[in-house]
């Protein structure tokens, strides 16, 4: 887990939502409602916000070697269809 203060990157909780990446979950067939849909958003500082199903407890005891989930982190799952629909909106590195 390490010291949170010494991390080279930290989430800026003051950043605002800039634009949706890709389509809504309903548009890709992953939801029939807008009340509980996974989403991918670019924040106004360039970071990415992911809204998905919390699967931290389900995966925490079977993570690959070298992978860990910090005490202030959650493992979130979104559908592959949602990520594929966002690909055209995601900047190249």
List descriptors.
single chain, alpha+beta, 93 residues, RCK C-terminal domain-containing protein, three-stranded antiparallel beta sheet, 5 strands, two-stranded antiparallel sheet
Walkthrough of the structure:
This protein is of the alpha+beta class. Helix content is 12%, strand content 18%. The chain has helices spanning 56-59, 80-86; strands at 17-20, 39-43, 48-51, 53-54, 76-77. It has a 3-stranded antiparallel sheet, covered by helices on one side. Strands 4-5 form a two-stranded antiparallel ribbon. The chain is globular, with a radius of gyration of 15 Å. The chain starts with 16 loop residues before the first strand and ends in a 7-residue tail after the last helix. This is RCK C-terminal domain-containing protein.
Mean pLDDT: 90
> What percent of residues are in strands?
15-25%
The termini sit apart by: 27 Å
Helix content estimate = 10-25%
Shape verdict: globular
In N-to-C order, the SSE pattern is EEEEHEH
Structural class of the helices, strands and pairings?
Answer: alpha+beta
Poorly predicted parts: none
Radius of gyration: 15 Å
How many helices?
2
- What is the makeup of the main sheet? 3 strands, antiparallel
Record field, number of beta strands = 5
> Largest beta sheet: what is the strand line-up?
1-2-3
Protein name: RCK C-terminal domain-containing protein
Organism: Actinomadura algeriensis
């Amino acid at each position: 887990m390490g010291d949170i203060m010494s991390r080279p990157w930290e989430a800026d909780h003051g950043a605002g939502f800039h634009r949706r990446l890709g389509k809504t979950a309903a548009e890709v067939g992953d939801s029939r409602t807008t009340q509980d849909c996974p989403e991918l958003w670019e924040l106004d500082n360039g970071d990415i916000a992911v809204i998905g199903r919390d699967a931290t407890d389900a995966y925490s005891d079977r993570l690959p070697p070298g992978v860990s989930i910090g005490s202030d982190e959650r493992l979130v799952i979104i559908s592959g269809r949602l990520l594929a629909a966002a690909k055209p909106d995601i900047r190249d590195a």
